[in-house]
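== Folding task for one protein ==

=== Format: two labelled lines per protein ===

==== Paired sequence and structure tokens ====
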Amino acid sequence: MSATRALDGIELPAPGVWEIDPGHAEVAFIGRHLMLTKVRGRFTGVAGAITVADDPSESRVDVTIDMTSVDSGDARRDEHLRGPDLFDVQNHPIATFRSTAITSVGTSGTVTGDLTIKGVTRAVTLRVEYLGHARDPWGNERVGFSAHATIDREDWGLTWNMVLDTGGLVVSKEIRLELELEAVHQG
């Protein structure tokens, strides 16, 4: 069985289960510090599966994020992110995303789903791009996806902040999410 198929003349992943490769997956976030510079972080503990259906709109995406794996490049900031002011990983070590609707046109589309962080679930729509297919040196069939969305972190109870003397905030409410995922065909 081929790992890809042609749909309306476009190469897409074949139907079946594609398991996310945790070693080649990243969920990143970007916010503003002092309303000036961008601060980037990522979660390296990402797992899940993409179930591709014959009709792409009936496909499913299920992702689990280990919130303890947060890495922003600064140990003190990471401890604060893990603490009760923000992610509260002691009580909420896992975040999840479960798709509810998928649309596609060619190799691009959207995946709308329920994102749960700290026990709060909200709908998020990700803009997704299928990056292509490759067979790795060990014979595994792989596909790549890139996705992004912008969210208001306060919608998930991530409300910690401080007001600056100038009226701005220490941390922006608006956060950009960026996902890079490789998935391995399971059949």
Notes: Residues 4-185 form a domain with the Lipocalin fold (CATH 2.40.128.110). The two ends are 8 Å apart (CA to CA).
